[in-house]
Amino acid sequence: MPDATAPVLAAERSAESLLMRLEWRVLKVLDGLLQGDYRTLMRGAGMDLADLREYQTHDDVRHIDWNVTARLDTPHVRVFTEDREMSAWFLLDASPSVNFGPPGRTKRDQLICFTAVLARLLTRRGNRVGAVLHGLQGDASSAAKDLVLPAKSTRTHVLRMLHLLMAQGKTPPKHTAPRPGTTQLQHLLALAQQSIARRASVFVVSDFMSEPGWEKPLARLAQRHDVVAVRLLDPLELALPNIGLVWLRDAETGERLHVDTRSAGFRRRYARLAAERESQLRDSLARAGVDTLELSTDDNLLDSMVRFMEMRGVRLRGQRPAARTA
User: Fold this and answer.
1) Which ranges of the chain have pLDDT less than 50?
2) Long-range contacts: 187-191, Cβ < 8 Å, 24+?
């Protein structure tokens, strides 16, 4: 299956041309696969509380009403009615660490393409999408900031999201002053909690390279909303090849380190520490009760979207626990 995103961002210079390319290469295929079943994308979106009943086998444990359960000494779950209009929110990590990856296939490129395809799939059926962008970079004298785009259902709205993200991927201002602590996902999640009034499907798209403290806010967000963590990664973050002496630079702090990748011992230590971080991150996401889609810079976007829909289909049928990774 041809990769729809390989040279896309390197060749396209505008949000309009990028979206047109994705609509032609990816959305047409996904439309056929979905065949109108958009519940696969947005499980439990637009739900209002209708009733309470006793817990039954295979019920989603996140719907248990613990106050009622404690009073009646019998597990009860909340029953929801679904609105005809669904809404989705994208919590987008635009911090410098997502600039990592090969030219035209960085983590930011994958973030942009995934967001464009999913947002456009939903808005083409009249569903509203909103966004909270974290870590937007200004000039050398300004700090990173967050931005909330209220939920709308127009193509123009999707284009504005993409334009903001693509502008962040351009060559940064000519300054070298580090900006320590740029990524603070707990702030992004707290802002989302304040901004999203009604129950929605929430997609947290990030590499999760953040200052600690985001785990509990993510779990709180998942108690009210249907949350999917779209985790961005690059193979070089997991294992280093033997490429000789190289300079490594932290995109967010500016710290530079000269390393010798010819050393087998160094590469083993690097891989071991990366594996430990992988395990800790996956455990944290599972404890938060969210589904996880891992999106690598060497992934085919169309294959990743199909994998995501299959994961959501399994969850709808109640064949898996509350959280899993695809």
Assistant:
1) 7, 10-11, 44-47, 140-141, 171-180, 319-322
2) 187/134, 187/146, 188/91, 188/93, 188/132, 188/134, 188/146, 188/214, 189/91, 189/214, 189/217, 189/218, 189/220, 189/221, 190/217, 191/132, 191/134, 191/146, 191/148
